[in-house]
Amino acid sequence: MRIGYFVWEYPPRIIGGLGTYAENICPAILDLGHDISVFTMNDGTLKTREILKGIDVNRPMLADGSGILPIFLTEDLRRWGTGIKFFNDVLIYNILSATKFVNELIKKEGYHFDIICAHDWLSAMAGIMIKQETGLPFVFHLHSTEWGRSLDGGSETVLHIEKTAADVADRIITVSYPMEEDLIRHGFEPDKIKVCWNGIRVDKYDPNRLATEDIMRLRSRYGIGPEERMILFVGRLTAVKGVVNLVKAMSTVISKHPESKLVILGKGELERTVSDLINRLDVGEKVKTRFEFVSEEERILHYGACDIFVAPSVYEPFGIIALEAMAMEKPVVVGARGISGFRDFVIPSGHDQTGVHVDGSNSADIAWGINSLLEDIEGAREMGKRGRRRVKKYFTWDKIAEYTIAIYEDVIKEVGKK
Fold first, then answer.
1. How far apart are CA 38 and CA 285, in angstroms?
2. Does the 207-394 domain belong in CATH 3.40.50.620?
3. Taking the model in full, what pTM does it have?
4. Distance between CA atoms of 418 and 404, rounded to whole angstroms?
5. Taking 80 as the threshold, does the pLDDT of residue 73 lie above it?
6. Domain extents for the chain?
7. pLDDT for 418
8. Contact call for residues 201 and 24 (beta carbons, < 8 A)
9. CATH (residue range 2-199+397-417)
10. Which band of pLDDT confidence, cut at 50, 70 and 90, is reported for residue 242?
């Protein structure tokens, strides 16, 4: 089949998890024999069209209309302030992408598309416009929601875009069963929703690829000796990731296990809050921060160097970071209360246990989870090995691509019968 693929970020421009998803799923779909035309954002430095590893990538050049948008926008969008430029870019990207898709690729170049898919609200408007213009089968991928990201608040405009796209779409694909339950609670049609997990490159996330001297060098950089235990957090420093409660938990962890040290790797609006809390709790010798985005290879090295990986999120639609850590044979402590995709793949008990579930909003519970692994470090290492086996069995990109295509094929058949 030929797929029209609308995703806000795509290589070489990757901002977060959505870009990583697109970077991996598109080649996997291509390997199954399908053609993809990607429409993505242009930051002004990229080609407007190119073939990238066999994939037709389109990046319409944007124009700045943020100066005139407030004239006719809602009060909700006026409250975005300087963020209005971001909304402008998203809006223009969607309009230009939909226009180019319909007028240039279909009408002018004669492309025949079997289906279109759009990812999150950032590309949803293009999906809505093309569906209404062409009648093509439309799949709306929801990797997260506005109410979830903002902890039950957020922009009314974005909420409206998400709900409209869900209503217009022929199918909604989301990333975990907790997300499916949450969408249904918010009024999305249950019969439209399918769950398709994210995946991982197990050849890339492989502990056997790392050299012992590189691991020891990284641990030494943070002042962590061979007999000490490195606890690792990787992620955006935002409220939903639970990093503040993790720092609070470290006082209890250190009191029971003085051999433990926490490394926080990531950037975000809570950098100052985290730094101030570390100083106030006087745990600077035990909690090391690195407020940076690092390369994937260096992130993999951090996974390899740690003893325990912690992701105490209070909202996590899927949680690919824990999947990465599991692929690297690391036991994990994950926030599993509320909307948590971690629950789909982190086994918290029994013979198949791969980690521990905690309440990310409770620092005492986070401390309990970490301590439970530190008290039996050999048992924790066995959890890590089971984790990699689980990832290899269920979460490779080829398996995820096959299931995604099966959903697309069902949608095409269903729309064809109407």
1. 47
2. no
3. 0.91
4. 22
5. no
6. 2-199+397-417, 207-394
7. 74
8. yes
9. 3.40.50.2000
10. very high
